[in-house]
Amino acid sequence: MNLTVSSSPHVHSGASVPSAMRDVIIALLPAFAVSVWFFEFDALRLVAVCVGTALVAEYACRKAMRRENTLCDFSAAVTGLLLAFNLPPGLPSWMAVAGTLFAIVVAKQIFGGLGYNPFNPALAARAFLLVSCPVAMTTWTSSSWQGLDAATTATPIDAATSATPLGIAKMALREGQPLPFEFDPMRFYLGDINGSLGEVSAAALLLGGAYLLLRRVISWHLPVAYLLTVAAYALVLQRLFPKPRGRSPSTCSAAV
Question: Which of 65, 100, 102, 176 has the greatest count of CB atoms below 10 A from its CB?
């Protein structure tokens, strides 16, 4: 009887990196479709630039380091897609290229590639672009629909440099002022607001998350634990600091 000794795992589920990455790409398709619906060509441009640059950079890095080609695991495509979803629609293409190169070359391949990078490459690239190009990264192009600018200004505009809707609401409530725009939950839920490509539609993101749960790519325990932790932390802070500085009872009721 021959025994083969090897390290764990000894039983494999059949899952692989390429299959997991394909599922992630499929889960992101609803958010991509919504971004194209609202931002049209800019969404297509940024996704094409980021994904294309990520694939070329991944191939060049692996070639230069004399390591096996990893394009077939789809991780580079996922990084490019996630980075595009973290960018404002009007960001110039050359900035998207610079951010993608940082994600693949610096945040991923320098550390050894998939599984060895200590940071999420797409989020590291977003941080890099925020530091390097803060104005461009906080300039929100008006969508093809109503957009936040139409709710906050009398005349429609092409672009606005400002905080996100959540940031605007936070500042208004902190100062005890009413919201500077009409809050329509369904509009915010579906994505008829300005913002980064992948963040505008909560409905599309939830649909993608449901797909990953059904495919058992992710478990419900982590997102639920995260949301409950944030809710508990917010409740504790609200109990400790029930009245933000500068708010009076009258303005509080008006703001709500």
Answer: 100
- Which pTM does this prediction carry? 0.75
Residue 1 included in any domain = no
Q: Which helix (H) or strand (E) holds 233?
A: helix 221-240
Same domain, 134 and 81: yes
Residues 160 and 199 in one domain: yes
Q: Is residue 120 part of a domain?
A: yes
Asked whether residue 210 falls in the same domain as residue 116, the answer is yes
| Whether 36 contacts 44, CB under 8 Å | yes
Alpha carbon separation from 63 to 56, 59, 115, 144, 203 (Å, rounded): 11, 6, 18, 42, 40
Residue 126's nearest CA partner among 90, 108, 102 is 102
Segments of the chain with pLDDT less than 70: 1, 3-4, 7-14, 142-167, 179-184, 192, 243-256
Digit-coded pLDDT (tens) for 191-216: 767 778 888 888 899 999 999 999 88
Q: How far is CA 29 from CA 25, 32, 55, 204, 226, in A?
A: 6, 5, 18, 8, 24
Domain containing 241 equals 221-256
Answer for the pair 34, 208: CB distance below 8 angstroms, yes or no. Answer: no
Rounded to an integer, what distance in angstroms lies between the CA atom of residue 54 and that of residue 20?
Answer: 18
In angstroms, the CA 94 to CA 187 distance is 32
What is the pLDDT at residue 147? 44
- Identity of residue 213: L
